[in-house]
Amino acid sequence: MAPMGIRLSPLGIGVFCLLALGVLYHVYSGFLSSRFSAFLDGLPGPEQTVDLRQLLAAAVKAAELGGKEVTRVRESNLLDEKRKGKTREGADDKMTRGDELSNKKMYHLIKTAFPGIQVNTEETVEEDDEGPAPWDGTIPGSIMDKIQIPRLVPAGSITVWIDPLDATYEYTENLVHYVTTMVCVAVDGKPLIGVIHKPFTGYTAWAMVDGGSNVEKRSDYNAKTPTIIVSRTHSGLVKQVTLETFGNQTGIISAGGSGYKVLSLLDVTEEKQEHADVYVHVTLIKKWDICAGNAILNALGGHMTTLKGENIVYTGSSGNEGGLLASIGMDHDALVRKLADKIPAVKKKPPE
């Protein structure tokens, strides 16, 4: 009797093939999956974006938080004054415990909430310094009412400039009405968001270019014999140039702090807040001192430029070498031309 062979039915052959395919799938799927994942990892991912409304809300919160440190230290009278050196004009460049503590709080709040953005701040910050409690991301109704549509920009295009205590010199003299804390957001070097907070009164001015603001320009400005606001600590050349440019009847205000000076151009009713028509500075000034004011003026239709009339770019170096001319409700180009005639180092802006 011949031995019996094993014969598979068509159904059995089909089952066998399916089993074989299943084994092959499990063997190779892991390999293919890892290769595909590696391929995807090698592709550039979507760039992180930031809603400028959220960044504005965080900037306001940071300025107010820093302001609390500034007032607390001043009221304790434990300033722990230090000299960082001399300014170019020979004045002491001071730093206090208020500067340091405000700087830490403001920097860490912004950097923790938006880790993908560049933050430039006046004082040194250690990454392991204790920061404030994390910001919860809430956009206040006062901002939402003014800016209802999200403003998304790439995180890599943003530079934030923080001034944790503007008018430190006046702060040490207890002239606290000059003191502000400021945050500015620049996108591709252009100032778009400005926050100026007066910690000793609680007043905060903010604005976003092509967005909204909680502050306005005044109803009128004196173009014929404007009142000029200048620095308290190095105002000699500015006063001389101002009188030669606009005449002996021109009013001159000597004040501390760039934030205070910008607010003097606006419709701000605050204790001891003076009002001026033009803000002039003729020497080096740091960008964290002026960026917030530049953004607010731009948002309200004003101007802040170098003395040559050039826009200030808020990337790269922290110093602005070209002097400063700020105005709103005035013919800014005419002011540039007048000052160029009186300041030898300033050449007229070339015709466009």
TrEMBL record:
Gene Ontology CC annotation, any one: Golgi apparatus
Enzyme class, first EC level, given as a word: hydrolase
Catalytic activity from the UniProt record: a myo-inositol phosphate + H2O = myo-inositol + phosphate
Cofactor: Mg(2+)
Topological relation to the membrane, as annotated: Single-pass membrane protein
Compartmental location: Membrane
Pfam families: Inositol_P
Residues at which Mg(2+) binds: E122, D163, L165, D166, D289
Lineage top rank: taxon: Eukaryota
Region Disordered: start-end pairs: 76-97
Involved pathway(s): Polyol metabolism; myo-inositol biosynthesis; myo-inositol from D-glucose 6-phosphate: step 2/2
Enzyme Commission identifier(s): 3.1.3.25
Family the UniProt entry places it in: Belongs to the inositol monophosphatase superfamily.
One Gene Ontology MF term: metal ion binding
Cross-referenced Gene3D superfamilies: 3.40.190.80, Fructose-1,6-Bisphosphatase, subunit A, domain 1 (3.30.540.10)
CDD domains tied to this protein: IPPase (cd01640)
Any one biological process term the GO annotation gives: phosphatidylinositol phosphate biosynthetic process
Protein name (database record): Inositol monophosphatase 3
Keyword Transmembrane: yes
PANTHER family named among the record's database cross-references: 3'(2'),5'-BISPHOSPHATE NUCLEOTIDASE 1 (PTHR43028), INOSITOL MONOPHOSPHATASE 3 (PTHR43028:SF4)
Keywords: Hydrolase, Magnesium, Membrane, Metal-binding, Transmembrane, Transmembrane helix
